[in-house]
TrEMBL record:
<feature type="domain" description="Phosphoribosyltransferase">
    <location>
        <begin position="24"/>
        <end position="225"/>
    </location>
</feature>
<keyword id="KW-0808">Transferase</keyword>
<dbReference type="InterPro" id="IPR029057">
    <property type="entry name" value="PRTase-like"/>
</dbReference>
<keyword id="KW-0342">GTP-binding</keyword>
<keyword id="KW-0021">Allosteric enzyme</keyword>
<dbReference type="GO" id="GO:0008655">
    <property type="term" value="P:pyrimidine-containing compound salvage"/>
</dbReference>
<comment type="similarity">
    <text>Belongs to the UPRTase family.</text>
</comment>
<dbReference type="InterPro" id="IPR000836">
    <property type="entry name" value="PRTase_dom"/>
</dbReference>
<dbReference type="GO" id="GO:0005525">
    <property type="term" value="F:GTP binding"/>
</dbReference>
<dbReference type="Pfam" id="PF14681">
    <property type="entry name" value="UPRTase"/>
</dbReference>
<keyword id="KW-0328">Glycosyltransferase</keyword>
<dbReference type="GO" id="GO:0004845">
    <property type="term" value="F:uracil phosphoribosyltransferase activity"/>
</dbReference>
<protein>
    <recommendedName>
        <fullName>uracil phosphoribosyltransferase</fullName>
        <ecNumber>2.4.2.9</ecNumber>
    </recommendedName>
</protein>
<keyword id="KW-0547">Nucleotide-binding</keyword>
<comment type="pathway">
    <text>Pyrimidine metabolism; UMP biosynthesis via salvage pathway; UMP from uracil: step 1/1.</text>
</comment>
Amino acid sequence: MASLPAHLANAPSDLPPNACPLPRTGQLAGLLTSIRDKNTNRGDFIFYSDRIIRLLVEEGLNHLPVVEKTVTTPTGLEYKGVGFEGKICGVSIMRAGESMEAGLRECCRAVRIGKILIQRDEETAQAKLFYAKLPDDIANRYCLLLDPMLATGGSAIKAIEVLIDHGVPQERIIFLNLVSCPEGLQAMYDVYPQVKIVTAWVDEKLNEQKYIVPGLGDFGDRYFTSN
Ligand code: PRP
Ligand code: URA
C-alpha cells in the first residue's frame, strides 16, 4: 500500500478507548485534503464528502453485532453464515448531519431516520437543543448518530442525552463523524464511555473560536449553502 507522509501516517496514539478512527490510507487522506481546501467549490465538496461518508457508514456497520444465520444456496447446500442481530436506525444532528443520511440509505435501503436539531451558539459555542423527532421504537434499535464535525462535543453529547431519554442504551449508539479533535473525543468519553465513535480523521486541536484546526471550516455552510 502507498505510504503517507510521516505527519499524516498515524492517528494520535493516546485517544480514548471508544474512539475508532478509520485506517489512514492514501485515498482517505486525499479525500480529506480535497474538502479541507478552501478553494474547493461546493459541488466538489459534496462529492468528496459523500465518498468519505460512504466509508464511514461501511465501517460503522462493521461495529454492529451479528448472529448465526443459515441459508440454502442455489446448489441446494446449506450455508451457515451470519446476519445482523438487531434493527438499526439513523439519527442526524441537523443541519450538517443531514448530509450523511443519503450515504446511510445507500447501504441500508429502508432505514428509519430520526432528526435532532441542535445548533451551536456562534458566540459561545454552546450547543442548544431545538427539536427532536425520532422513530417510535427507537429504544429497540441500534442508533447510528450522524454529524460530520466533533469540536467541543457539546452537540453530540446533547444528542446522546436525547437518545438516552428515549430509552436507547449508550452501548447501542455508534457516532459517525468526519473530522474530530482530541478535546471533543475526550469530552464524549468522559460522559458516555460506551458510545463508539467512528471518525474519519482526528485533527490537531480546537482554536480559540472552538473551530477544529486545521479542520475544514463550517461543514454545514460548505455542504449546503456556499458557492
Ligand atoms: C456544527 C457541527 C456540529 C457542531 C460541532 O453544527 O455540525 O453539530 O457544530 O460542534 P461542537 O462539537 O462544539 O458542538 P452547527 O451548530 O454549526 O450547525 P449546522 O449543522 O447548521 O452547521
Ligand atoms: N462546526 C463546524 O462545522 N466546524 C468546526 O470546526 C466546528 C464546528
